[in-house]
Amino acid sequence: MNDVYVILLVLFPILLFLGLPIYAALGITGLAVSYLTDAPLIFATQNVLNGLDKFALLAIPSFILAGNIMQKGGITEDIISIFRHAFGHIPGSLGIVTIFSCMFFAAISGSGPGTVAAIGAIMIPSMIKAGYSPEYAASVSATGGTLGVMIPPSNPLIIYGIIANVSIADLFAAGMLPGLFTAFLLAGVAYVLAIRSGAVIEIDHSIERQSIWCLIWKAKFALFLPIFILGGIYSGIFTPVEASVCAVVYALVVSVVVYRQLTLPGLRAAFENAVRLGGALMIIVACSTLFATVITLERIPQDVVESFSGITESATLILLLICLMLIIIGTFMETISAIIILAPILVPLVVSYGIDPVHFGIILIVTIEIAFLTPPLGVNLFVASQIANIKFERVAVAILPYVATLIMVMLIVIFFPQLSLWLPETLRSLR
């Protein structure tokens, strides 16, 4: 083992263990390898700047801002009301409502924790008040938030598309069917768990079938936004970056002119949150670019390909091994960081086995969904437990049935690649 491998396998984990922010650990490790290989200092600075010199990255803060504006502008409540009226006559309906509300909000925000915060802040107190246990309310909200990284537009898919040099529009299309499939499965699990819990849940029998159409008409501007964004991208009218900016303008106009609930303090809070989250992601991307460049120049991806080639020739087995590794890594590493660090290594590996990088991107995202729910990191668990005001450990136990469901989805996507590839292939043929 040469000195570079020692730095990557020893220094980097030690820095993380000491509690350094992920961007600092990535940057220090990259600088150490650069120094060891006698690279000039300008090599490091150029790579950090080049990491941010990617036009597609502009979409991330814009989609975050659009989701924040919708939340502050009162649009989220209308979305939830539609699903409450659609499923309100079903026992255990609030769990189903939470999942589908998260699914819809995910089509705007592109963020998993952001989806939990937006929908969970409304649904968790409502579920507890209706007789659901705090553990159930928090677990179903945390699970629904995982759809934020699968349903397009998705910030992790944008990052993966940039790193893997894959069409972001194709990735968005590829995530649509698996995302919908996952939402329906999770809603089914939420329903079964609500019924089995034995909670006394009041059903609103006053709901009239035709009232949902009134709600749909009332929320027509909110419902049109995902159609506007995704339809524009898939039809080629605008790029994902242009779509993100259009989403901000659309959400701003609807919140101010139609709903008239967006205040100046609310708008300021939306911008502050978008800047904070977007800025944190940009720092990670910048530092991880140096890290990724170093491991590429040291031919580490090629070494990994050669090592795995000696283990098996089965593409399916390779995917299963990779997913197992990703689940383990995801328990202690932030999502975007894991993608940035591992994608440059894993994409050449899966391509060498004839696996479509678009298909692998969706497998990667499904695995990340599982990581969102697995301690000790489990970002969605932390957000949901704070809203429900219960201990993290209690939510971690209640989340297990949903984790098992996501593992099943991961296996289905692996063994049935057309679930993710059919839609992008169809859309490409229509262009």
TrEMBL record:
<feature type="transmembrane region" description="Helical">
    <location>
        <begin position="7"/>
        <end position="35"/>
    </location>
</feature>
<feature type="transmembrane region" description="Helical">
    <location>
        <begin position="215"/>
        <end position="235"/>
    </location>
</feature>
<keyword id="KW-0812">Transmembrane</keyword>
<feature type="transmembrane region" description="Helical">
    <location>
        <begin position="144"/>
        <end position="166"/>
    </location>
</feature>
<feature type="transmembrane region" description="Helical">
    <location>
        <begin position="55"/>
        <end position="75"/>
    </location>
</feature>
<dbReference type="GO" id="GO:0005886">
    <property type="term" value="C:plasma membrane"/>
</dbReference>
<feature type="transmembrane region" description="Helical">
    <location>
        <begin position="336"/>
        <end position="355"/>
    </location>
</feature>
<keyword id="KW-0813">Transport</keyword>
<feature type="domain" description="TRAP C4-dicarboxylate transport system permease DctM subunit">
    <location>
        <begin position="9"/>
        <end position="419"/>
    </location>
</feature>
<dbReference type="GO" id="GO:0022857">
    <property type="term" value="F:transmembrane transporter activity"/>
</dbReference>
<keyword id="KW-0472">Membrane</keyword>
<feature type="transmembrane region" description="Helical">
    <location>
        <begin position="87"/>
        <end position="108"/>
    </location>
</feature>
<comment type="similarity">
    <text>Belongs to the TRAP transporter large permease family.</text>
</comment>
<feature type="transmembrane region" description="Helical">
    <location>
        <begin position="274"/>
        <end position="295"/>
    </location>
</feature>
<protein>
    <recommendedName>
        <fullName>TRAP transporter large permease protein</fullName>
    </recommendedName>
</protein>
<dbReference type="InterPro" id="IPR010656">
    <property type="entry name" value="DctM"/>
</dbReference>
<comment type="subunit">
    <text>The complex comprises the extracytoplasmic solute receptor protein and the two transmembrane proteins.</text>
</comment>
<comment type="function">
    <text>Part of the tripartite ATP-independent periplasmic (TRAP) transport system.</text>
</comment>
<dbReference type="Pfam" id="PF06808">
    <property type="entry name" value="DctM"/>
</dbReference>
<feature type="transmembrane region" description="Helical">
    <location>
        <begin position="114"/>
        <end position="132"/>
    </location>
</feature>
<feature type="transmembrane region" description="Helical">
    <location>
        <begin position="307"/>
        <end position="329"/>
    </location>
</feature>
<feature type="transmembrane region" description="Helical">
    <location>
        <begin position="172"/>
        <end position="194"/>
    </location>
</feature>
<keyword id="KW-0997">Cell inner membrane</keyword>
<feature type="transmembrane region" description="Helical">
    <location>
        <begin position="395"/>
        <end position="416"/>
    </location>
</feature>
<keyword id="KW-1133">Transmembrane helix</keyword>
<keyword id="KW-1003">Cell membrane</keyword>
<dbReference type="InterPro" id="IPR004681">
    <property type="entry name" value="TRAP_DctM"/>
</dbReference>
<feature type="transmembrane region" description="Helical">
    <location>
        <begin position="361"/>
        <end position="383"/>
    </location>
</feature>
<feature type="transmembrane region" description="Helical">
    <location>
        <begin position="241"/>
        <end position="262"/>
    </location>
</feature>
